[in-house]
Amino acid sequence: MEKTKTVFENSELFTLTYGALVTQLCKDYENDEEVNKQLDKMGYNIGVRLIEDFLARSSVGRCHDFRETADVIAKVAFKMYLGITPSVTNWSPAGDEFSLILESNPLVDFVELPDNHNSLIYSNLLCGVLRGALEMVQMAVDVRFAQDTLRGDNVTEIRMKFIKRIEENLPAGDE
């Protein structure tokens, strides 16, 4: 019981802190597009560092394909860091693109977008985190929000597209 209460309080604190961060960015930058870029950039930097923690704590090995990667993201990573398990759906025929459907997004608890911020992608930090973390395991991906409950959509949908496998560039002599 005590652990559940602590996790709830931590997630609430995180949600409120994130809200304060987005509010400050909206004050610091002239338009929503710039705020969206900053959130993505911050998320990318978090993802680049978070992947080490994830790999150490989860004991997940190297994924063999993009489908396995999608399952690990949804069932392990989101559960570990946000306490939710999005569903993986809407695969492209080529198997290089899918959607993560978030029934609930803890980042948007207590949030209403003001009318003057209709192009703000409030949770864009998540796209950056996913992109940064996957880049560190040699996967270039495009990540974007396709739907968002803050904009009146029924669900929050993050669309992920595999771009390419990044080849490790070893310095000369280290081959």
What strand line-up does the widest sheet have? 1-2-4-3
Cα shape: globular
Whole-number average pLDDT? 89
Largest sheet: 4 strands, antiparallel
Rg calculated over all Cα atoms: 17 Å
What is the overall number of helices? 4
Question: How many β-strands, per DSSP?
Answer: 4
Structure in words:
The chain has helices at residues 2-28, 32-58, 66-82, 124-136; strands at 87-89, 97-102, 139-147, 156-165. The protein has 175 residues and is an alpha+beta fold. The chain has a four-stranded antiparallel β-sheet. Strand 3 (139-147) and strand 4 (156-165) form a beta hairpin.
Question: Quick summary of this structure?
Answer:
By secondary structure, the chain is α+β, with helices and mostly antiparallel strands.
Supply the key terms.
175 residues; alpha+beta; four-stranded antiparallel beta sheet; 4 strands; globular
Draw up the topology in text:
Blueprint: H1 2-28, H2 32-58, H3 66-82, E1 87-89, E2 97-102, H4 124-136, E3 139-147, E4 156-165
Helix pairs in contact: 1-2, 2-4
